[in-house]
């Protein structure tokens, strides 16, 4: 089932998500719904809080080497209770967007190489080393779980421009 994505400036986007304790049918249904929602909205990641469920669960699917997402979910990562550890201090700039802030993209600095410790949908502990775009996508989604949006990483001037453009866009919709 495709769920509604909550949109900035909804205050729920700034809530810190709670640790997942139950790896049950309800969690599996949520993860499946999140996948359908992410694909339907042409996203590469989605945090549970974006569909109004404040738990530490997220999806990332950056696809294969050509960027193609597989229908059989071969490239899908279901990440529960993530803990990120940077592997070094190297950072990269990546042009990010967000399903909760449609139509806005900006270059953001993120760690290039991370280790991710997490649980899968069954509660099994997993470890993954991620690099480049995958590392960026994971960090973006974990920020959501911590109640942060990528626009908070903008410089003061870029944030002022975003706020001005957002207000202008909001007035046009009314």
Could you walk me through the main structural features you see in this protein, from its secondary elements to its overall organization?
The protein has 174 residues and is an alpha+beta fold. It has a single domain, classed as Peptide Deformylase, CATH 3.90.45. The protein contains three helices and seven strands, in the order αβββββββαα. The strands form two sheets. Strands 1-2-3-6-7 form a five-stranded antiparallel sheet, with helices on both faces. A hairpin with a 5-residue loop joins strand 6 and strand 7 (125-131). It starts with 24 loop residues before the first helix and ends with a helix. Its EC number is 3.5.1.88. The active site is at residue 141. One of its GO terms (molecular function) is metal ion binding. One of its GO terms (biological process) is translation.
What would the keywords be for this entry?
single chain; 174 residues; Peptide Deformylase
Using DSSP, what is the number of strands? Answer: 7
CATH H-level superfamily: Peptide deformylase
Please state the CA-atom Rg, rounded to the nearest Å: 16 Å
Domain count: 1
- Main structural class: alpha+beta
Query: Strand-residue fraction?
Result: 25-35%
Instruction: State the name of the first-level CATH class.
Output: Alpha Beta
* Helical run tally: 3
Instruction: Please state the average pLDDT score.
Output: 94
The unreliable regions are none
Topology:
Blueprint: H1 25-40, E1 45-47, E2 57-60, E3 77-86, E4 91-98, E5 101-111, E6 113-119, E7 125-131, H2 132-145, H3 156-173
Antiparallel strand pairs: 1-2, 2-3, 3-6, 4-5, 6-7
């Amino acid at each position: 089932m495709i769920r509604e994505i909550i949109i900035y400036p909804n205050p729920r986007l700034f809530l810190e998500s709670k640790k997942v304790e139950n790896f049950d049918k309800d969690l599996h249904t949520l993860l499946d719904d999140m996948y359908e929602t992410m694909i339907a909205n042409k996203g590469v990641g989605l945090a549970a809080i974006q569909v109004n469920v404040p738990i530490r669960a997220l999806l990332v699917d950056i696809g294969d080497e050509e960027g193609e997402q597989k229908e059989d979910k071969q490239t899908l990562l279901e990440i529960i209770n993530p803990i990120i550890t940077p592997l070094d201090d190297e950072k990269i700039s990546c042009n990010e967007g967000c399903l909760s802030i449609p139509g806005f993209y900006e270059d953001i600095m993120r760690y290039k190489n991370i280790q991710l410790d997490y649980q899968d949908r069954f509660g099994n502990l997993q470890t993954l080393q991620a690099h480049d775009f995958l590392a960026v996508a994971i960090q973006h989604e974990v920020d959501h779980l911590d109640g942060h949006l990528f626009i908070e990483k903008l410089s003061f001037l870029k944030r002022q421009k975003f706020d001005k453009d957002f207000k202008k866009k909001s007035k046009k919709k009314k």
